[in-house]
Amino acid sequence: MTDSTDADELANASARGDLRVVQMLLQSGVNVNQRNTYGRTPLQVMKLGYPAIAVELLRANANPNEQDISLGVTIAHDAAREGFLETLMVLTENGADVNLQDHRGNLPLHLAAREGHLDIVRHLIDLTIDPLVRNKEGGKAVPFLPVCTAGNILSSSSCGSPQ
């Protein structure tokens, strides 16, 4: 059994990208899915540019589909939005569901396209069940047009017209 101090230590080490401390804490039995003082898991706060941290946390059975309480985003949303392809690949290879929508209806694919991360769009396009799913901008369903224009990844025939 771990306490909140252990959870904070693991989350902090993950956020710093301190692989040695992450490994040590996991080996000592710290619960990889316990939330820190701020309600976030170590995987949710990990330093995105350090895929080795993701590997260690996932090996210890971290849940890659844990959604942030306030925004509904997962670590896959964060990696896609920020452009961390290698980390996103580790996540998707270890069970991250890229079809989970955040509270605004965005998939990781929406966020990658919006930010212009074409390498990530290419990675996600085949993993996404419905790449033309609509999000909820302004309270209305909005066609997901950015992916239709992002580097011509989808042919124009597969992009629907706005409704």
UniProtKB/TrEMBL annotation:
It holds the Pfam family Ank_2. GO terms for molecular function: cyclin-dependent protein serine/threonine kinase inhibitor activity; protein kinase binding. ANK repeats lie at residues 5-37, 71-103, 104-136. The keyword Kinase does not apply. PROSITE patterns: ANK_REP_REGION, ANK_REPEAT. SUPFAM superfamilies: Ankyrin repeat. One of its GO terms (cellular component) is cytoplasm. This is Cyclin-dependent kinase inhibitor 2C (p18, inhibits CDK4).
